[in-house]
Amino acid sequence: VSFSSNARTLNSTSDVVKVVNDELYNIIGNMEYLTAFFCIIDSENGTIEYTNAGHPSSVIIKKNGDIVELGQNSPIIGFLNSVEFNSNTEKIEDGDRIVLYTDGVTEAKNEKDEIYDFEKFKKILIDNMSLPNHKLTEVISAEIREFSGGKDMQDDVTILIGDFTKKQGRVSVDFEIFIERKKVEDEDLES
Description:
- The chain has 191 residues and is of the alpha+beta class.
- 29% of the residues lie in helices and 28% in strands.
- It contains six helices and eight strands, in the order ααββββββαααββα.
- The chain has a five-stranded antiparallel β-sheet with strand order 4-3-6-7-8. The protein has a three-stranded antiparallel β-sheet with strand order 1-2-5.
- β1 and β2 (47-53) form a beta hairpin.
- 26% of the residues are buried.
């Protein structure tokens, strides 16, 4: 099951995700599933084609501060066989930023069992949009830790931030990634 190998032979994100879905379903049946955000960046035309299969909305922060949500447009992967997947395309320009993340970000909980939701996440992205990628990942991580009262994460947190720049007539992207793994308890290892 591979997004990468299928992307070499198929033309659209929806086709790639469909093949991955069918492969996964054939391996595990409808016992498990996964969510995914899969995209192809066309650097010559300045576009991003994406399929969001049940994953949290990724976002493009436009240079002017507008947010474009790359929301769910397809079902989860691996639960049903022979299901159709969709793709959407958005324009990307010099100065835009894309933010991809796992649900560990927007589902982090505090001591009152409240979640760090998408609206809080969007606000921190906009309030800190002038920061470079590596600094923004640090600010987001610190904000989530503060919100959670310093307690261990209930889920893995991964954030991928890419800044688009135009060079020699093509759009290129510079990525920064942050990963924090959920702490595994001894009893989790035994089950």
